[in-house]
User: Which sequence fits this backbone?
């Protein structure tokens, strides 16, 4: 395995009852790389992200993290190994406040007398949300009361501010307005420029993929059907791939 490969997925399959979500899927993520994952609805993108972040287990296949076997037992286990994710249902706890969700399971605790450093956590939450231009006046409010975009912002801010060096962002711009989406893309660019973090982004917008990612993988029917550096592809090529797959699926169904 080349030295710069941080995460390798080999021959992974995953079914849910009769539905085959992933079939013999292979994927490689390199150090500091931003990999864009494209694919139709139901292609298997979220299933792959959930397997990578320890939320689901593959049926077969192997994964390697920094050259070691990677078999996460839970999301917390994956996080302890340096992989953190925002996935589609966001994993926020409705009853907890904005800042409690932001520091969920990594609360700042005063030592040696253990009490929560609430003020410090609120300040850091405010800074992180300001960075992506989201104004949530009351950080003590339960997140159940927030809009979809605000909830999305908390989930993204929480992940990009984690200590992880592999970030998995499943549709990080979903539910975001154009301005907030642009700020998140800026933040992704800054993380990329640091060279310290590798990312997999599930995106639906080809322009965003070409602008923000180093490489693009297209997932079709549970396998990676296309893998190229973004510098070597174009909107036209990506559109043509998706349209021809749509035609193929229509023909297969008829
Ligand atoms: N927990 C589950 N139980 C049953 N089927 C599931 C489950 N999770 C995913 N699937 C099925 O697996 C397939 C792949 O789903 P997945 O959510 O990975 O697709 P996706 O590419 O993320 O789609 P979208 O862009 O619509 O989110 C779909 O047919 C979906 O219905």
Assistant:
């Amino acid at each position: 395995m080349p030295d710069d490969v941080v995460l390798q997925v080999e021959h992974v399959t995953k079914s849910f009852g009769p539905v085959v979500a992933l079939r013999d899927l292979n994927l490689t993520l390199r150090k500091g790389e931003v990999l864009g994952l494209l694919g139709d609805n139901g292609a298997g993108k979220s299933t792959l992200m959930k397997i990578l972040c320890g939320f689901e287990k593959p049926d077969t296949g192997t994964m390697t993290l920094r050259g070691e076997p990677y078999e996460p037992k839970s999301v917390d286990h994956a996080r302890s190994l340096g992989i953190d994710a925002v996935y589609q249902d966001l994993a926020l706890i409705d009853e907890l406040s904005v800042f409690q969700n932001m520091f969920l399971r990594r609360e700042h605790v005063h030592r040696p007398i253990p009490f929560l450093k609430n003020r410090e956590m609120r300040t850091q939450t405010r800074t992180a949300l300001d960075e992506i231009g989201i104004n949530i006046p009351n950080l003590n409010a339960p997140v159940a009361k927030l809009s979809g975009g605000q909830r999305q912002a908390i989930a993204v801010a929480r992940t990009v501010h984690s200590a992880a060096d592999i970030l998995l962002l499943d549709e990080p711009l979903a539910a975001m307005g154009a301005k907030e989406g642009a700020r998140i893309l800026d933040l992704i660019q800054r993380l990329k420029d640091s060279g310290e973090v590798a990312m997999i982004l599930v995106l639906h917008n080809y322009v965003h993929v070409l602008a923000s990612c180093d490489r693009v993988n297209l997932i079709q029917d549970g396998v990676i059907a296309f893998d190229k550096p973004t510098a070597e592809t174009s909107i036209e090529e990506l559109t043509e791939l998706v349209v021809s797959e749509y035609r193929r699926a229509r023909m297969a169904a008829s």
In short: Residues 46 and 235 are 23 Å apart (CA to CA).
